[in-house]
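pinned: reference chain
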Amino acid sequence: MLKISEIKLNLQKLWQIKLKLNSSEAESEINWILNYITDLSHAQQIINSDYHLTEKQSQELNQIIEQRLNQKMPLQYIFGEAWFMGLKFKVDQNVLIPRPETETLVELALNLLKLKTKIKILEIGTGSGCISIALAHFLQSKIYIIKAIDICEKALELAESNAELNKVNNYINFEQIDLMSFSTDEDWDLIISNPPYITDQEYCELNPEVLHEPKLALTGNNNENGLIYYEKIGKLSLKSQIILLELDAGRAELIKQIFQTNSLLNFKIIKDLNNLPRFLLGI
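pinned: its structure tokens
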């Protein structure tokens, strides 16, 4: 049996070659895998560099290597969990994996809502529930209600489980609703969404890892130009004091025009940490 230090060295090379990750990305994934298998933290792995995997742990490692390298399955799906805004979420292939860009979306929302109370939020396309759950976790008693809708029943079941896991289920109502037939007369303090914006043509060009994620959450239905969900949400924005959306960077200006046409709010595009036009804010 190889020592943990030798395993790290061997996997580092494999990860960089087969997954085309840089050394830092590869190291991060390998540390996570070994933590999952051995329950040793990164620091403990360094201290216990002579640690030998048991036969059972070695079998588990080989299975993970097969899924990650050959099937190109993201670790979050292999482990059934992901972290978002410091919170743990259950994930499976019925929901998108929470992404760092979406953390920025939540941070923007928290900053905009920090002086408000009795807050009413509508989230469209909740998926794993990460946006609504993070908002509920950090705002807590300031929340009046969060309504989180999604078309996928299995995604909603997972979102409800995540709300219970993070002890915020009392703040959120999850409902199975198709956005295209949705209407609301309620006034919202915030409408927030990361809607499907990938066209079918673009979907065919995605890397193999993303193809493990649910196509419905990436492209939606009949979304030939990648804009139909923004167009629908634009008609709801009149009933919200704030609207905050994650964008397809390549269509940011087109999406902004949709909302300027349909709403009395003032809209601006906000760039992400990579200096890409990633968010639309109406206020």
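why pinned: Residues 23-38 form the longest helix (16 residues). The mean pLDDT is 95.
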